[in-house]
Amino acid sequence: MAKQVPPKKKLSKVAKRAAANAPTREQILKFVAENPRRNSKRDISKAFNIKGADKIHLKAILRDLVQEGKIECRGKRLSQAGQLPPVIAIDVLTRDRNGGLLGKPADWDEAKNGKPPVIEVSTRAKGKEKVAGLGNRVLAKVFRIGSSDRYTAKVIKILPKQETQMLGVVRIGEGGIRLESAVRRQGEMEIPADLLGDAQDGDLVTVETIGGPKFGLKRAKVTGVIGSYKTEKAASIIAIHANEIPHIFPESVIHESEAIKPASQGKREDWRDIPLITIDPADAKDHDDAIQAEPDPDVTGGHIVRVAIADVSAYIQSGSAMDTEALLRGNSVYFPDRVVPMLPERISNNLCSLREGEDRPALAVKMHFDEEGRKTKHTFHRVLMRNHANLAYPRYQAAIDGKPDAKTKPLMKDVLEPLYEAYKCMTRGRNTRQPLELDLPERKIILKEDGTVDRVLVPDRLDAHKLVEECMIQANVCAAETLERKKQPLIYRVHESPLLDKLEKLREFLTSLEMTLAKPGNLRAMHFNQILSKVRGTENEELVSQVVLRSQSQAVYTSENQGHFGLQLSRYAHFTSPIRRYADLIVHRALVGSLGLGEGGITPHEEKTLEDIAAGICITERRAMQAERETIDRLIAGFLSEQIGATFHGRINGVTKSGLFVTLDDTGADGFIPISLLGDEYFIFDDAIHAVIGESSGQQYQMGQRVEVKLVEAAPVAGALRFEMISEGVEGTGLPRSRNTNKRTGHRGRQTPGTFRGKGRRKRH
């Protein structure tokens, strides 16, 4: 019987008209390619004069283009598939035949993303524009050339980077003078005796490579001595220098900070009698946020919550020496043994720190919540306040749990209990919003007096932490809402929904566990929460949590609002930490200026350069995170270096073609197991289920799997650990079949199931 072909569905007159008025697919692709900064659905509608019901047909075309992989959707913005962000850091590497500069994205991962795109860096400059040279790392605006993989770049500023210099520790022994590199992937180097300079054994030095023999160790020349690696702060010193973090304030900045006088009340509202308190970590050196709450007399079950933030804009004037340095640093950097502050100590730890019992200028928001925790209104105020009590998180929690001490007992009825009742009210609103609930443990390193690791612990996640966090989130929302209402340009904190390729990988992984994920157009944080709740308490909890976390986009600063997916908020801006984040200082200035709250408002120049400022502080934020992570790695590697040969229990937290990453239970230390040390068979990598599978045995090692490992190597200077697997693999279901099947192995060939080191197969011995 012949197969019947269903008749084509007739289009209505409205649909025919919409199709006739809509741009073609080719026109849309061309517009997206040529307008990297003006490419939202609204922009496309305006460009092609699409109105009313005709927008439905346009959305259908855009949806098809996204599903086909022709364009990518990042929040409200569209871009060509694989297109670079509008502003990135670029390493200038070489020249073309005509002498032009060529570069590549500084953070490009070739193993993950393939060959980097070619970027032609402009050497033309007008006025104060920067001109780049070979070896420079620059922050630049990039523009795609048609639909090719080539870009042009306009330099915004030259970032401090010395490509030829490296960091390491001098080791002098019978075999000669060696440099132990501070970079994991950089091997040992030889230092000729006549190029050692004043460096001694154990000194942390900078070197530059020099010519040498074709075979054997690379040779290096010492260019600077930083200090002895034996000092208690060596790990953080390496991170500071390796990541080129500014850590010494120029004299002009110090002089400027010393000359500043404490702010007076002036036209500020007097809030000194309002019982605001600070709740911070026990070891906090500065306090920039205070909170207070009380029942709302006009709303049954409602609450009034006040959040007062240190008024840094009263002291740091735009364009001043301190402001210029703060923008360069972007944020404070926190190490286990020290802090590299964004602002001089007189500002951060004194004039702007909300010290107990002392008067301080503040920018405050008064928020009203109804019985269900919905914010109904808010107002901003420039005030003079007094911190009535500085409490550590455990101290406040103990008081709320019925164990007040001499300090907290007098505060219970009028201060601490009303705050907790307001928190419970706000929690009802949070539960309605259903933000992403990825509650992964954070470890804290406790050091001895000599700077070495004493122990590693996971602090309890208390209601006191959640209380302060929810107050800060609501205050940040108020800042964004107020500035939008005033049509004031600002810097948003944006967290886009996961990209389609990451969602597809997550969906494929969940399918292997017989779980499903909502379609991209309907996806909300609650859908991830539902998945996490299904595996809570099961053997797959850690595995699924890690995979969900890695599917999420990275939060960034931008001058364009794209919402915050994780918090499920349509607008969000950082307002609550201006002592340690430049983004918050900009938001303070924007509020002061737009609300007419006195001096210290945002300037026209800052408004014009918000995009560049946002791009710069995104880079400094990532730099700080990397430096903090590297320091912890070095400290723990040093802690474990005396336990070579010991066995540990841990969990696989990463699977690659090259091997496995394992996180130890006790310390949270991360180490690597090369795939060559797993066994005497081929291991096939499957990224869909995050596992490597023995080709002969079918035994698999999968992300999230609990294992026992032996420590075989520790490199404290580089912060690297190498393990050997002790645990046997587990029985796996094998690689999922697909239409794209590798005939030779019978396994998925979507990403050449391969293994191992290099491109070919190697036997395991």
Explained architecture:
Helices cover 28% and strands 26% of the residues. By secondary structure, it is an alpha+beta fold. It has six domains: 13-80, Arc Repressor Mutant, subunit A, CATH 1.10.10; 87-159, OB fold (Dihydrolipoamide Acetyltransferase, E2P) (Beta Barrel); 165-230, OB fold (Dihydrolipoamide Acetyltransferase, E2P) (Beta Barrel), CATH 2.40.50.700; 251-489 and 572-626, no CATH class; 497-552, no CATH class; 644-731, OB fold (Dihydrolipoamide Acetyltransferase, E2P) (Beta Barrel), CATH 2.40.50. Helix 1 packs across helix 4. It is globular and about 80 Å long. It starts with 12 loop residues before the first helix and ends in a 34-residue tail after the last strand.
Shape: globular
Total number of distinct structural domains: 6
Radius of gyration: 28 Å
Query: Can you give the mean pLDDT?
Result: 84
The DSSP helix count reads 18
Largest sheet: 5 strands, mixed, barrel
Major sheet: order of its strands? 3-4-5-7-6
- What structural class is derived from the secondary structure elements? alpha+beta
Strand content: 25-35%
Distance N to C terminus: 60 Å
What percent of the residues sit in helical stretches (DSSP H or I)? 25-40%
Spans of at least 5 consecutive residues whose pLDDT stays below 50 are 1-9, 734-765
Using DSSP, what is the number of strands? 34
